[in-house]
Write a structure and sequence with these properties.
Length: about 325
């Protein structure tokens, strides 16, 4: 509940001027106008319903607010043509006010894309003026001070809910939160396999994942084939055979861009044969491929195993290509 303030004064006037007995006809308190045309507080719309004149020259201002801070003057008017008097210099009223609930606004009203400049502004009416502190939800402690929170080049890691606190000597008030939702193209997709050993006849699922906002859509392609193999995060090959060997691409795409990675599958003809898997990550000026041989479970003599290991080293192939493929050895 707001306060009520009484402005009090004392005044005197001569009993008579010549043959005229002096009578006070009107009492006025005002902040607007001047001595010749003062605006009575009772008639001032800024004080509507909040002014009450009491005994003597006391005036009560109810529901006092910060905007009531001003210099107030008292004036009385008598029945004499020259009997108009104003107190000077007046009474200065300074109203302190706790901060209102702070509001947060953002410089961008549309989609926020990675790299955009973004400003958040916190504001609150208060007297004395409020100081401001910024917070990010689920982050401990304040992240900035001042009425503005500035992102010169917003990043995906800046996504989240932000709020501010406005504080003066009277009180501390906290705003509601505002969401920064940064959109960005898919990161380099990651490809994983449902099986570590590839043999004819098994069912194999290739899975593709990528961080992005909005969420990425996925499309699978096979080298030298025009039509997509599949749309979706997973590509499943049932009863896999040697005809399924080859280079498979996963493309992750959204409204902000796309990235693709690839995996090379070589399917063995029998369980005792060896299966070659090379995982490749794309998008760049060079092609780097690591080839790893997987030996299927089989009983060999110690000499055969040593021989097998000696003739099947991990090899590195490097060739210039439009895409950059970074391969992981399985």
């Amino acid at each position: 509940m707001r306060s009520t303030v009484d402005l009090k004064c004392n005044y005197t006037h001569p009993d008579t001027v010549g043959d005229t007995v002096i009578e006070v006809r009107k009492l006025i308190w005002y902040t607007k106008g001047d001595n010749y045309a003062p605006v009575d507080l009772k008639d001032d719309q800024d004080y509507a319903g909040r002014i009450k004149y009491k005994h003597g020259c006391t005036v009560a201002i109810r529901d006092v607010r910060e905007s009531d801070s001003a210099v107030y003057k008292f004036r009385f008017i008598t029945n004499h043509q020259n009997g108009k008097y104003t107190g000077s210099p007046g009474v200065t009223l300074s109203v302190s006010d706790m901060p209102n609930l702070p509001s947060v606004s953002m410089s961008s009203s549309g989609h926020i894309v990675e790299g955009d400049p973004i400003n958040l502004t916190c504001s609150s009416d208060a007297n004395p003026a409020a100081t401001y502190t910024w917070y990010k939800k689920d982050t401990s402690g304040p992240i900035s001070k001042g009425s503005q929170l500035v992102f010169k080049s917003v990043q995906s890691s800046d996504s989240g809910k932000y709020f501010c606190a406005a504080e003066n000597v009277l009180k501390r008030m906290t705003s509601g939160s505002i969401l920064i939702d940064v959109e960005y193209a898919p990161n380099l997709p990651r490809i994983s396999l449902s099986a570590s050993e590839i043999m004819e006849g098994i069912s194999l699922t290739l899975s593709c994942s990528s961080d992005s906002n909005p969420a990425a859509n996925y499309t699978w392609f096979k080298e030298k084939e025009k039509m997509p193999q599949s749309s979706g995060q997973n590509l499943t090959i049932t009863n896999i055979g040697r005809q399924h060997s080859g280079l498979y691409f996963c493309e992750a795409h959204n409204s902000r861009g796309s990235h693709k990675s690839a995996i090379h599958l070589t399917v063995a003809a029998s369980k005792s044969a060896k299966a070659l898997i090379s995982v490749i990550y794309a998008d760049g000026p060079f092609l780097f491929t690591f080839y790893g041989w997987k030996q299927q479970a089989h009983k060999y003599s110690e000499q055969q195993r040593k021989k097998s290991h000696s003739v099947l080293p991990v090899s590195l192939a490097l060739r210039i290509f439009w895409h950059h493929f970074l391969t992981l050895k399985l």
